[in-house]
Amino acid sequence: MVKPDGVARGLVGEVVRRFERKGLKLVAAKLEKVPEKRVLEQYREHIGKPFFPSLCHFIESGPCFLMVWEGRDAVSVVRRMIGSTNPAEAAAGTLRGDLALDTGRNVVHASDSPASAAREISLHFSPEEIVAYKRVDEPSLYE
Ligand code: IDP
Ligand code: MG
Known about the structure:
- By secondary structure, this protein is mainly α.
- The protein contains 8 helices and 2 strands.
- The protein has helices at residues 4-8, 12-22, 36-42, 52-60, 74-82, 95-99, 114-124, 138-141; strands at residues 25-32, 64-70.
- Strands 1-2 form a two-stranded antiparallel ribbon.
- The two termini are 29 Å apart.
- The structure holds inosine-5'-diphosphate and magnesium ion (MG).
- Inosine-5'-diphosphate binds at residues 51, 55, 85, 103-104, 106, 109, 112.
């Protein structure tokens, strides 16, 4: 997900470009102001933490660009490509390392395990919104 700061800063294309070039396949996407109920559910593991209210308020404040990416080890690959939660500590070359300065404005969200990916995909997308197709470069991407 490109968070509201990333959408407002015009970074949707940059985020999509990086994952596309890596070889991941975009199988669903939408621009949406995510309703409170789904934001609370997405971040439920953080309920009770001091940043939880401001986090949820910010995510609800403007449109997010939600995506589903497919590919070998997609969850761990994407987590490495977005970098550490705190952009000040995120490695150069990662999205957060290159594009952000503040933990509360770190541009992107990504699921942290296959289980949370399954949960978050079904939270935000209906099965009909997920599209099966082939990338023409698949034979060159995988041995
Ligand atoms: P993640 O986005 O790298 O998975 P999480 O620990 O799951 O990081 O936290 C979710 C989001 O909550 C972060 O991306 C960040 O926007 C926000 N957040 C986490 N920790 C803090 C904090 O200490 N202060 C302010 N915001 C925080
Ligand atoms: Mg997280």
